[in-house]
């Protein structure tokens, strides 16, 4: 009985062991299949995420490029607008300076002529009229500047008309003889280049000389050829430092290439009054005075207005 019992137990143990091994194998196979499927799914998910990330990056790069181009366009427009504003500002400054000079000149002319200031008040704003227009939301800075320039232009026209009237009255009150340039325009010196056709000293080509050149030493006084009003004092292209004088009765004189000036726009000067000093500024080869005479805005030979000897 002992042998039978032992033999039965061994077989039962073997059967149990075999079944356990089979079950373990199935479990392992199932686990392997599960993990393998998860691995494939993970690889697919990773690939999809990588593709999505690349697409997102491309979209972001494209958006950044568009943003950069838009910013560049805005910057170019801003630069162009700033250049335009600078041009307008320079133009307005020039017009305002011109108005200031005309105001000063007009006031001094009124004083000299002993005119009624209520009739020639150069400080008053010009009179304008017309229908009132509503401000538009579309009005920009450029339109505002254009309107300001038109306003200043109207002011200049008004001042010009006033000065023309003053000049006419002054002509009636002054004598043509005293207005005529007659004095030698510097202390010493000699005529080094005459009026009319000549050879340009810089180019060697024939050229028209609208005045006479009076050679003199540096710093020699430049003197007014007759009494009058200074209508310009400053720098000009080619002429260097220049003084222009309005003498009345159509006479004007110009003194160019000076080293310095001693008068200002609007100054009333007498004949032989100091205007500046001999120099060599502008289109010049050495110290001298360029002297011009005009009659009703036409150049005439200054030699006819210079004293002999």
Automatic annotation (TrEMBL):
- What is the official name of this protein in its record? Peptidase family M23
Superkingdom as given in the UniProt entry: Bacteria
Does the record bear Thylakoid in its keywords? no
The GO terms describing molecular function are:
metalloendopeptidase activity
User: What are the TM regions of this chain, as residue ranges?
Assistant: 21-41
The UniProt keywords, alphabetically, are:
Membrane, Transmembrane, Transmembrane helix
- Domain named M23ase beta-sheet core: which ranges? 208-302
């Amino acid at each position: 009985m002992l042998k039978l019992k032992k033999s039965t137990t061994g077989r039962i143990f073997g059967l149990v062991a075999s079944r356990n091994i089979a079950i373990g194998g199935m479990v392992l196979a199932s686990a392997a299949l599960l993990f393998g499927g998860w691995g494939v799914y993970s690889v697919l998910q990773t690939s999809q995420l990588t593709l999505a990330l690349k697409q997102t990056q491309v979209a972001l790069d494209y958006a950044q490029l568009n943003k950069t181009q838009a910013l560049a366009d805005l910057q170019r427009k801003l630069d162009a607008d700033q250049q335009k504003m600078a041009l307008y500002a320079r133009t307005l400054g020039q017009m305002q300076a011109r108005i200031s000079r005309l105001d000063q000149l007009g006031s001094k002319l009124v004083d000299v002529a002993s005119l009624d200031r209520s009739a020639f008040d150069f400080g008053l704003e010009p009179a304008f009229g017309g229908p009132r227009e509503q401000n538009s939301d579309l009005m920009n800075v450029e339109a505002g500047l254009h309107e300001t320039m038109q306003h200043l232009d109207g002011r200049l026209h008004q001042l010009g008309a006033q000065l023309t009237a003053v000049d006419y009255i002054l002509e009636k009150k002054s004598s043509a003889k005293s207005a005529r340039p007659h004095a030698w325009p510097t202390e010493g010196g000699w005529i080094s280049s005459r009026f009319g056709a000549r050879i340009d000293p810089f180019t060697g080509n024939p050229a028209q000389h609208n005045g006479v050149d009076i050679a003199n030493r540096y710093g020699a006084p430049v003197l007014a050829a007759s009494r009058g009003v200074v209508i310009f004092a400053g720098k000009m292209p080619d002429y260097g430092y220049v003084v222009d004088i309005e003498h009345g009765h159509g006479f004007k004189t110009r003194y160019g290439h000076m080293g310095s000036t001693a008068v200002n726009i609007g100054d009333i000067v007498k004949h032989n009054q100091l205007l500046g000093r001999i120099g060599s500024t502008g289109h010049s080869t050495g110290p001298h005075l360029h002297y011009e005479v005009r009659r009703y805005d036409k150049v005439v030979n200054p030699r006819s207005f210079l004293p002999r000897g």
